[in-house]
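pinned: reference chain
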Amino acid sequence: MRVPPSGSQEALNRLDHRDPLVFDTHELGRRPGSLRKVSRTLEAPADLGVADVIGVPEKSEIKLELRLESVVEGVLVTGTAEAHVTGECSRCLEPLEDDLEVDFQELYYYPESEERHRAIAGDDYDEESEDETYRLEGDLFDLQPVLRDAVVLALPLQPVCQEDCLGLCSECGARLSDDPSHHHDAADPRWAALQGLSAAPGDEGDEE
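pinned: its structure tokens
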């Protein structure tokens, strides 16, 4: 979710300082080199991960360690997030869980910095690049989209319960890692018509 252009009413009212993933930079000031460290433990938002595959359970605990640094163009945010993830093995469908630690860094621009770039660039201003930038709204910034990108990129698209997971038997669905010797005898299709047939009593042939 990208921040709307500065100056719009939507941009001015969108962020809620009570949101645990919204941070206030007022105490940092705008003097380049100013530094502030923030530690926060919060509940995970919904859909933090790869849908229906693996992710951080909603409302589970996330620990954040952030370093906020004032630079000429805005506030540079460097951080680490620790969380517990759950999912399903892509081979055998067994539940799995793990601890995740991700690092991230993002520059949140001052609104006037972007306006200055736009004025200097003129017709050469790249609108697509502008859409990819994050901006401060007053003294506030929203960490959620940056955190979401970092978590999703760190998660496997095809998680496995163990590297050598053998998956499921295609015949009966049994978990092969529980019984590596598991197999089914393949019947010769040429004899399929005779399966289930047996000689009736008394048909063994006449005795001499």
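why pinned: The chain is about 15% helix and 30% strand. The longest helix spans residues 111-121.
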